[in-house]
Design brief:
The structure is a single chain. Helix content is about 30%, strand content about 15%. By secondary structure, the chain is an alpha/beta fold. The N and C termini lie far apart (about 40 Å).
Length: about 200
């Protein structure tokens, strides 16, 4: 994973609650075994019509949101099945931060394991952001993982909670393999010891 200390990007306001993982990445795209290549299929059924043409009214098909790296959504984002592909699809598209009032537990964990920051803010703060983003298309936010703050250049700010271990992993670009490799010398020393059998 790439370390994330301060992320600055365009906001896409997706004012929908209970966005489930089948909406984020539909089941027909789960046959791939790689972690890459899912970006074009993000929100497939909302982004494209039955013939595969982009729907001009869907947010991520319109400028400037095609370049968004921060998604704002309603409560219970990432509910539904446990597919890790949902986090892959978001990051492959370029979304590195999702802000919502709440997240499904498994999605929240999958996001953390894949360098996708989930920022839980009170619903009134999320609604303020949705309104600001709707009023100012192309609104940009700065998300600071060190200070645990979200700000815009118009004077709006909020603080968010983050588990210290998750914060450490994001700041240092550590996924589960990276965490294990921090103890590589101890693992090698253990494996080099004579076996008792």
């Amino acid at each position: 994973m790439q370390p994330m200390r301060i992320h600055h990007g365009i906001v896409a306001p997706l004012d929908r609650a209970n966005v489930d993982t089948d909406q984020i990445i539909p089941k027909q795209f789960l046959k791939r075994i790689e972690r890459t290549g899912y970006g074009p299929f993000l929100f497939n059924d909302w982004r494209y019509d039955a013939t595969g043409r982009p729907r001009p009214d869907f947010l991520l098909n319109r400028h400037p949101y095609t370049k968004a790296s921060i998604l704002i959504a309603g409560r219970n984002f990432g509910c539904g099945s446990s597919r890790e592909h949902a986090a892959w699809a978001l990051t492959n598209f370029g979304i590195l931060v999702v802000i919502a009032p709440s997240f499904a537990d498994i999605f929240h964990q999958n996001a953390a394991n894949n360098g996708l920051l989930t920022v839980a803010l009170p619903e009134e703060k999320v609604n303020e952001l949705l309104a600001r983003a709707a009023a100012h298309p192309g609104l940009e936010l700065t998300v600071n993982v060190e200070t645990l703050t979200v700000t815009d250049d118009r004077g709006w700010s909020a603080s968010f909670p983050l588990d210290p271990f998750r914060q450490h992993c994001l700041l240092n670009g550590l996924d589960q393999i990276g965490i294990t490799l921090q103890h590589e010398s101890a693992i090698a020393a253990y494996e080099a010891k004579p076996k008792p059998y």
